[in-house]
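Build the 3D complex.
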Amino acid sequence: MEDLKEIIEECVAGKAQAQAKLYELFAPKMFGVCLRYATDSAEAEDNLQEGFIKVFKHIDKFKHKGSFEGWMRRIMVNVSIEKYRKQHFMYPVEDVEIYESNVFSNDILDEISVQELIGLIQELPPRYRMVFNLFVMEGMGHKEISKEMNISEGTSKSNLARAREILQRKVKNLYREVETK
Amino acid sequence: MKEIKNIDKAVKEKLEGFSVVPPPHIWENVQGQLAAGKRNKRIAFTRWIAAAAVVLLAMLAGWYFNNSTQPDSQTTAQQQTPGINTVVTPKTRSKGKEIQQKELIGENTTQTQSNKKEGNSGNSQKQITVLSTSNTVAKKSLYKKNLPPVRENQLLFAKINRKEIRFNTLTTEIFLEKHATAEPNEFTLTNEDKMLIAANVASKNTDKFENRRWKMGLNVSPGYSSQVVNHSESYAQNMSYSGETGNTNIGGGFAVQYKTGKRFSIESGVYYAQNGQKSAASMNLFASKNDVGSNYYSSNESVSMDAVSRVSTPTFSNTVNINNGTILMNGNAGIVALDATPKGAEITTNAETKSMIAPGTMVAEGEFSQVFDFIEIPLLLRFRILDTKFGIELVGGLNTGIVVGNNAYIDNSYGVQNVGSTQDISEINLSGAAGVGMSYALGKHISVAVEPRLNYYFNSINSNPEVDFRPYRIGIYTGVYYAF
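Done.
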């Protein structure tokens, strides 16, 4: 992607055309990321906007080591976490026992659309959603998540289990609905 | 466990490449905010230029002051009036205000219902007369359809951010202008708009009051200066006195302050200050001529303490080094190079020494002093504790001291004679400053202030490793300030 490097360099120089191009290239994907972390598309839009402003302001700090998409994605995730922290700083820390997962077949997941899945994720309680996203999509460990979210590792684990459980149930319900139609 | 992994994997696979084209207004917002950021940078940059110009002018004024004691401060007054009343967007202002606006939004979100009912109460809408705007109207209605009230407020806030708002508070008229090219049309303001605008107007008014950010002042500072001093053993051996007394003197200067926040301000300026020390006529430490006569030759090197203890009249006596016509003497603040033998002084040398560089003893009546004149350029941080008509401020910071005068004096029956200068004095030195300022406002612009301040040099101002001479000065900075 020699092209991308050029675009980035022009963005560093502050060229508006390059900024537009970069946005065009990455906005859809990043919006996808933001949607996963947000309660609704309005929140996701806000985060995307904020994230892109951060990207353009700090683009000079990208050292062309590793993937630019990953760097950008990290910014979006950070913005989302930040937003979560601001909104849910009073959220009580509850200790939920780890729920053992029920049998869950992949086939059901294949049936539902991406949009439906996103919708289900968005419906998760905020902290479960954050933990689930960070663990599953970002590949973070519980230790890292506990730091990012300012919760204990145990809470992170139980939240993840709970998120899985809720998702499963919701997918099943949805699937059943689809089936009965 | 395998099952769990599979769910994760399945979700990840499904969502990995997920992408949705975001609505076009997001890019507009991003662009708008980036442009606003650029403007901010420009404003900040010009402010720094203005500040730098003031400091430079202050320096020049200080040098002038040093020569003629009449600083020309008025010229600088015109240099740095920042563009206060120009077009301002809410984003360009201080953080505090942003928070205020955010708080306001927070309130709105919780009280949206009641606000709508209460409707037109409050005096804010009285002030609003004209509002011209653009396609944001269309956007607004678009959002009204599918968004909860909370979102609407935030959007309104964002919308207002993107506008350049011109306030004309004196005539109580507000103009909202969209800077992008768009057809102007009118609509009535919602309560949220009005509240935001009212908050802006309120903060704008306080702004006007606080916008007197610059302060300039003239000071005189009567003070007392002394020093912390240490000598190496070999150096001290050839120094038969240790003058620990300081001297009183008058300094003064020109100060510029710039208010960076509600309570913080920074100050620079140019001051003249004197630091010196005297070898006071201490009975214990001074030998008389008679003592020298009887004891010096017997002890051969320096005046012994036995001799000193038998002193009757205070007389200055010290070992000196005569080298190519210059007389070098170990003074308290460093080696003094005497231009010539001072009047009323006698120098005795050991004629039998083979070496041409013969140590001798200088005997003179009177007080000996080494005096340094400094031009000081401070960089001080001021924190206002009490912010009323009578104000109290804590002051602390750094001072760059430039040595502009370096003289050694002897004060005896022939009067005060300038006998030479101290060697190895560093020209530029750094000192710390701390003080407590008290001020009293006489009017909108003029205030008087009294400020005891301690200046302490961190390092020896003498580069000779044998001498550690760190002067300090306590001054009562008293002056008049002009705020604008």
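Residues 25-68 of chain B form the longest helix (44 residues).
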